[in-house]
């Protein structure tokens, strides 16, 4: 297939390598094409090459990237999704498949005009593995490959086709999800990251609070965070039961995903995950100490385009989520106003009826 990968970061580089390795004609649409080499590699933690492939083209020319593409894999953060959708729209042909990796964050709404034009939009419930750039434009390190990937599409009837293409391109087992909302409501980072940030910085007052040191984000995870996470996770599950016109059986509880349903067990599990070790909490050093980095994606993506989406769904269908709302209430006075936030109304989804019509197609 003619595959275009939009975004040259961790996941984009990894996906481009895999799809090139499996015999596809791969183009990367990136801002700095001159920094990308033809030969890309994925390595393990010891630096051993485990996947390799050659790019056909690296470009920042939208027409070259999208006009003949049969499959487009979008790996930019959620706040850049609308810009991506608008940029590629003039060049899309009916039948083109657009994959959002991962598929939460409301990105599907940004591609509403593309669907109307005849495009098929699909998403993965989670990324195929943890990935970290080794060298921009050349290599990425991947750990913790998932046993199975889960895919959903809009319109729904194309899910099986999209699932098969992902399975072939990544050489990984891939299964269908019954409804796209299984992606939209996946509680992963929108609950995992936001609960951690609140418990770490619950006493933070801009201009007054400074920290000498801050715990590592995952490796020094706390029971306090787990307790709050369990409450918010339960509210997401209740929301899924509230949406009884959809099959949301694959919005898995984080307890089930991490295979621990006790506070202590869950905390120890998060602390022990190899791919999470050493990852710092997003902070900025100023003259008087450390303060939270409010421009970090942990804030600007996981609140603005993670928890915001889930809470808007809850509000549209009249489901109370007090613990999740408490996270937003804490974040609101801290929010960096230069970063946008997701709003269904921006895409013409103003009521429960609009919402159901969009996700039932």
Strand order of the largest sheet: 5-2-1-6-7-8-11-12
CATH class of the largest domain reads Alpha Beta
Number of domains: 2
Order of helices and strands: EHEEEEHEHEHHEEEEHEHHHHHEEHHHH
What does this entry look like structurally?
This protein is an alpha/beta fold. The chain folds into two domains: 2-179, 3-Layer(aba) Sandwich (Rossmann fold), CATH 3.40.50; 185-359, N-(1-d-carboxylethyl)-l-norvaline Dehydrogenase, domain 2 (Orthogonal Bundle). It contains 15 helices and 14 strands. Strands 5-2-1-6-7-8-11-12 form an eight-stranded mixed beta sheet. Helix 8 packs antiparallel against helix 9. The chain is globular and about 50 Å long.
Question: Any chance you could write out the topology, listing elements then pairs?
Answer:
Elements: E1 2-6, H1 10-21, E2 25-29, E3 39-43, E4 49-54, E5 57-59, H2 62-66, E6 71-74, H3 81-88, E7 97-100, H4 107-110, H5 112-116, E8 120-124, E9 130-135, E10 139-143, E11 148-154, H6 159-170, E12 173-176, H7 181-184, H8 188-201, H9 223-242, H10 254-257, H11 263-272, E13 283-286, E14 289-292, H12 297-300, H13 303-317, H14 322-331, H15 352-359
Parallel strand pairs: 1-2, 1-6, 2-5, 3-10, 6-7, 7-8, 11-12
Antiparallel strand pairs: 3-4, 8-11, 9-10, 13-14
Helix pairs in contact: 8-9, 8-13, 8-14, 9-11, 13-14
